[in-house]
Amino acid sequence: MQCPVYREAVSARLDGEPLGVPARELEQHLTGCVRCASWAEDAALVTRRARLAPAPVVPDLTASVLTALPRELPGAAAAARARLAGTALRLALLAVGVAQAGIGWPSLSSGAAAMSAPVHMAHETGAWNLAVAAAFLAVAAAPRLAAGALPFLGTFTVLLTAVTVQDLESGHVMADRAVAHLLLLAGVLLVATMAWRGRRRRAATAPVRGRVPA
């Protein structure tokens, strides 16, 4: 072999790379070739000096970098307002759920309902009111359930509102009884708002998918 092959092997050994030739053969060549042995010593010396050379002095930019950073990350204020609004919605829905349960529990427990309704009808009314209250409380505890609860609550509220308006016009229900349904309407509006906010949040965090050309 020519000397350049062994010198490449020496260089590779200094860099921790594969030699390309057997190590024993390299040592034998360095023992018998004075020029390659001298070249290997010089290469080792240059490599050592390069590795032990002092690093250049650089200015400390810590203070300037920290000063250039904004005091508040972009979007932090909006995120704080969103969390505050979400907490307010959940607390409001919690209050509506508790109030709705307070309306339904007497009818279910004692069978006493407004306008002297039959006992079974009072039980049914109480069960419905407690079921709606449970839905409100569940959404207040886990807002991700808002979108799933909205079809049931929305349908029930729309139908109840329609028949209540008709009953008011015909005199089949007293105004104070109809006003109690405003609590249900408020709860459904809160659930709808939470579902809308959740949809916007998912849309904002969803990855954008690139279109595949046809």
Kindly describe this structure.
By secondary structure, the chain is mostly helical. Helix content is 75%, strand content 0%. It has helices at residues 3-14, 23-32, 34-52, 62-68, 76-110, 119-141, 146-170, 175-179, 181-205. α1 runs parallel beside α3 (34-52), α5 runs antiparallel to α9 and α7 runs antiparallel to α9. The two termini are 58 Å apart.
Descriptive terms for the model:
214 residues; mainly alpha
Radius of gyration: 40 Å
Low-confidence stretches: 210-214
The chain-level structural class is mainly alpha
The tally of helices reads 9
> What's the end-to-end separation, in Å?
58 Å
Strand content: under 5%
Whole-number average pLDDT? Answer: 81
What is the helix content? over 70%
Assign an overall shape.
rod-shaped
Find the count of extended strands (DSSP E, 2+ residues).
0
Along the chain, the helix and strand elements come as HHHHHHHHH
* Major beta-sheet overview: none
Would you summarize the structure shown here?
By secondary structure, this protein is mainly α. It has 9 helices and no strands. Helix 2 crosses helix 3, helix 5 packs antiparallel against helix 6 and helix 6 runs parallel beside helix 9.
